[in-house]
Write a structure and sequence with these properties.
Chain lengths: ~350, ~300
Amino acid sequence: MSAETVPALQVRGVSKTFPTPEGGEVKALDDVSLDVADGSFMVLLGPSGCGKTTLLRCIAGLESPDAGEIDLRGERIDTVPVWKRRVNTVFQSYALFPHMTVAQNIAFGLQMDHLPKDEISRKVERSLELVRLTGLGGRRPQQLSGGQQQRVALARALAKEPEVLLLDEPLSALDLKLRRGMQLELKRLQQETHITFILVTHDQDEAMSMGDQVAVFNEGRIAQVGPPRDVYLRPQTRFVADFIGEANLLELDVDGAQAAVIGWGTIPGDAWAPDSPAATAAARTAAVRPEDVILTSGDGGRFPIIDATFIGGDLHAVVDVGGTTLSARQPAAHSAGLSTGGRCEVTFRPGSLRIVAD
Amino acid sequence: MAKATKARAGQGSWWAGAPGLIYLVALVLAPLIIILIYSFLSRAKFGVGVRWEFTAQPYIELFYSESLSGERSFDPTYLQIFFNSVLYSLATAIICLVLSIPIALWIATRPQKWRTLLVFLVTIPFWTSLLIRTYAFVIILNDNGPINGTLTGLGILSEPISMLYTPFATVVGLVYSFLPFMILPIYASAERFDFRLAEAAYDLGATKGRVLRRIVLPAVRPGVIAGLILVFIPALGSFLAPELLGGGKTLMIANVIAAQFGASRNWPFGAALSVMVLVLVMLALVIFAVVARRSSRRGGQQSLESLL
């Protein structure tokens, strides 16, 4: 392996168990492996309690894994104490030191590295410039807005020029408008600094818009890793299909090579995505996005429309196909005659159905 | 940092403060004025009470002794006692501080249900009279007490060391009596401390010692300052520990004052000594306030200024 191809960070078989207050145990991480390419923006996505923050804390050194190994540029770090790791964290609560000014906060980490004074002040200035807070170095964190505090937390971590920057739900405390702005800002910072970013979030839109790679977590395991578009278009598990965007999950009736949606009928071959695994008796859950469910009105429609609502320019409809319901979404222009209480016919867009694992 | 605050509900009703004000005037201010006046009066004929004849004699007695022939010469006896009192009180405050920081931080990092219990345990000594607890130290520290017994029994000492009736015993007694007054305010500060800040400091490359010094200690500073005041000032006026454990050899001001109103029968001089204690306490508070203000300007966070 040449130096270029060594991932910035490698997580191999990491497990971590916490005791619960009731005396039981909860497996926060269960044999998790993940490669993070150098200079990439990796997003760890999952519902709360899925283990994504625990993994981040294991990488930072604030938790130690029960099993497995974490390598930073090919060197093992899970046995290295937290203060020696070339990894820095932006905390969800920002964790700015209230008794220090903004500049002192940023300088703190540099002082810990025993850098000369003039170099520290130069780096502090540069970091402030990087997060566009030039001139606010003398303020106290309490005198800043939430968005500004967020930037200070970023500047403080980036000033150390870490190999990997960890961001723990950094935008969750910001209001929606600010959050959108900061998403672009983070993306810009990552591209400008070429530092590898690992960001934890439970917000799928955030994950989709920011990540080069998204790792979807579920119950202490990684369900799927890939570029956002890939994860959206080619979900491999039921959880991923359901968690990322919206999906209809259909329990199929499988008979040999034939698969049928109960109440709807046999699925034509062209409805399947070409790279979908085959439906078998063991793997018989199909996922289809609402925008791939096409409703047509007509007198001979077999299926009752339970609900039809216009949201924005789209019709959102729920159709009873006998035994199961399907959500559909289509442009308002193509939905003449579709209304609550009416009947319709249902087809699937070619190449849209996909078998997902449980 | 008493900035102008907005009117709060009930702020207008001045009379709500009346009982407190009457209490303060009648039981704090009035006695202080009486003491101040007495300290400028003459000694009564048989020593009980005062003679209404104004004089600076009691204050002169503080610094000078008068020989039988009426010659005044400088006498540092009382200054020495003042100096010792300040020294023992400072030692007490500093020892309490050093002991309390780890205890308070340890309690503050326990789970919530344990914290309540531990704080409760810290206050248990208050259940018994200080007199009895100080007498207990007579038993603990004496030549045949458990400490000497253990040390000689183990062969560490060939013969018992005299601990009782020394300044050491006095300070031990003072530290014991005032330790909770240091632990509790520091704990109160430490409990509010956001330990995620310590994690952030570790993450930024700080070792344990630096996290403690740069992040934790500045955060508990208001508690430390409150604790220093709560220990130093009452220690300065303490009577029991020097009386019982110092054996009358290591006198502190309170013992001398008590003697003036008792055996020595010199009320004006006792009053003058009390005024001096008051001046010392106020001086100490001013010093604390200045130090607190300076360090809060450097380190942020409100502290003593709001207290004073």
